Amino acid sequence: MSIPDRVKALINIAGETVTLRELTALNIDTGTMTNNPVYTPHVVKASIRDFRDSELTGLVQKGDRELRVAAIDLGAYVPKQNDKVLIGSKQFNVKSVNILTVKNEATLYELVIRG
């Protein structure tokens, strides 16, 4: 079993189902001149945790959470800042994404989310 497959298996055992919402377009309403974002949903299993107080440095704030997703579950989609995450009925904003690689292959995405 490859390392990306092992990461996926571990998250599938202990993770919970979330929806990553990829920002794919902005439709402009010419009547109101407002942007209406268009999102593509990606339903995956993810590991979620709260940051400890000792980890609150730089851009990480109290209340932020870390979400870990197996890269193999997302195919060609790479999460990015300003995408959204739905956990249950609560929506979070993606603040940053760290890509962990093994042998130049994306294995795990670590997202800092806020909401």
Characterization of this structure:
- With 115 residues, the chain is mainly beta.
- The protein has one domain (3-114): Thrombin, subunit H (Beta Barrel), CATH 2.40.10.
- It has one helix at 3-14, and strands at 16-29, 34-50, 65-70, 84-87, 90-102, 105-114.
- A 6-stranded antiparallel barrel has the order 1-2-3-6-5-4.
- A hairpin with a 4-residue loop joins strand 1 and strand 2 (34-50).
- The longest helix has 12 residues, at 3-14.
- It is globular.
- The termini are far apart.
State the gist of this model:
By secondary structure, this protein is mainly beta. It has one helix at 3-14, and strands spanning 16-29, 34-50, 65-70, 84-87, 90-102, 105-114.
